[in-house]
Amino acid sequence: MSGGFFRGTSADQDTRFSNKQAKLLKSQKFAPELENLVDMTKVKMDVMRPWIAKRVTELIGFEDEVLINFIYSLLEGKAVNGKQVHISLTGFMERNTGKFMKELWALLLSAQQNVSGVPQQFLDAKEEETKKKKAETDRIANEIHRKKEKEKQEIEQEKIKMDGDGALSRDKHDELDLHVKNDAGGPASIQ
């Protein structure tokens, strides 16, 4: 005990105080997408937040505001490591963590590469939705136009039928003309 030297080991050398997260990073298997860091300055989180909340709720079966806000906080920062986020979420999401992280990281990587900061899948889905709405609007407009044409033809046939029978009075004839002109969008004046 002479000489003033310290005996024992330092905290770095003692295995009881080792970095548990570093051990998990080495021992656990991760999806290949998580190998890449994401630059969160290139990602629009306003677009990602609703997806994250919806997907977490679907996977765990109920809406957990604490978990959702925890995920948001993990994604704050310039460069985010997917493996560390995965390890942090494992305690909350258990068996669903891998699936969630794979989907999330694919979206984040896509958003990072896209100039707008929005994942390409979201842009494609929005474009598809717009096409469907336009097709539905066109279909409704065509249906309305077809019905108007059918009504117009029916009135014309009724007019011809009545004229052929000679039973149509002058007032009824003018009334049918007025109705046909109104449907066609023409002036509505009686002669």
Automatic annotation (TrEMBL):
GO molecular function per UniProt: RNA binding
Region (Disordered): 129-191
PWI domain: residues covered: 27-125
Record carries keyword Flavoprotein: no
One Pfam family, short name: PWI
Cellular component per GO, a single term: spliceosomal complex
Compositionally biased spans, kind Basic and acidic residues: 129-182
Keywords: mRNA processing
Official protein name in the record: Serine/arginine repetitive matrix protein 1
